[in-house]
Amino acid sequence: MSRITYVNGRYVSHREAAVHIEDRGYQFADGVYEVCEVRGGRLVDERRHVARLQRSLSELRIPLPMSLSALSVVLHETVRRNRVSEGIVYLQVTRGVARRDFAFPTPGGRPSVVVTARTLDLASNDKIAAQGMAVVTVQDNRWERVDIKSVSLLPNVLAKQAARDRGAREAWFVDRDGRVTEGASSNAWIVSADGKVITRPAERGILRGITRTVLLDAIKAKGLVLEERPFTVAEAYAASEAFVTSASQIVMPVTRIDDRPVGAGTPGTVTLALRAAFHRHAEFS
Ligand code: PDD
């Protein structure tokens, strides 16, 4: 079956899907995106992802070129046309095509919208979850507005490659005070020796992950103690468990940080319980 992609009002063959070379997404990374999990053919937490998209767009003064109901139809239709049961749907909105000038074009052009969907291998994700994964720490050299889900991801790309080069799956960014901000494409969490679940507050320095937000409900429902505060790399080394959250990985155990085992070096019980509970707290549409 050939893949179908939505580009600016049309469903086209994925192989031929294209935007113009003067799209500001291509020229300046002037755009935003969302990644939403698909499970059983349904979107997970679409409402929250779309709300975050609207926020990202409004921070960058990019209008959404279609109604929210039309956008929802496009997201579902792209999933349906690609027969994705378990996977992700990706949505990107850029400021559109204009002659290459740094300031916003006047009059503003039409934003470009691209939606793709693809199947993920759940079994292989579960296998990674059963083993746990390694992360490495890198200096956080990103701009201050990482709360905007922008396609400007070069530091994240370099961090992820640094992780890959060191045999790890994820990089954790560390701020100037030696505190973990978040992963290159995930939020970072630890569980302390006395069982507290610790993650950085989403006010500054991180993206407010949708998986993170939903997991807060799961943590509360389990009666676990949550501490929303920055934690240091030293604390992470000493933690009994660690994990990351993102739409594509849900809750993924971290069992090595900078080549040191976390706790017993195997996925933690709190982490696995939260992974198992996650979808009971998510919304499906
Ligand atoms: N990444 N922090 C960063 C920097 C991210 O890129 C992501 C998601 C998250 C987690 O957000 P959420 O729980 O809403 O997925 C945190 C997506 C999956 C990606 O870029 O592919």
Task: Describe the model.
- This protein is an alpha+beta fold and 285 residues long.
- The protein is built from eight helices and 15 strands.
- Strands 7, 8, 9, 10, 11, 12, 13, 14 and 15 form a nine-stranded mixed β-sheet that branches. Strands 2-1-6-5-3-4 form a six-stranded antiparallel β-sheet.
- Strand 13 (241-246) and strand 14 (250-257) form a beta hairpin.
- Helix 6 (210-221) packs across helix 8.
- The protein is globular and about 55 Å long.
- The two termini are 25 Å apart.
- Bound molecules: N-(5'-phosphopyridoxyl)-D-alanine (PDD).
- N-(5'-phosphopyridoxyl)-D-alanine binds next to helix 6 and strand 13.
- N-(5'-phosphopyridoxyl)-D-alanine (PDD) binds next to helix 6 and strand 13.
On the 0 to 100 scale, the average pLDDT is 97
Bound molecules: N-(5'-phosphopyridoxyl)-D-alanine
- Helix- and strand-based class? alpha+beta
Count the E strands.
15
Rg is 19 Å
Poorly predicted parts: none
> What's the overall geometry?
globular
**Percent of residues in helices:** 25-40%
Brief rundown of the structure:
This protein has 285 residues and is an alpha+beta fold. The chain contains eight helices and 15 strands. Strands 7, 8, 9, 10, 11, 12, 13, 14 and 15 form a nine-stranded mixed beta sheet that branches.
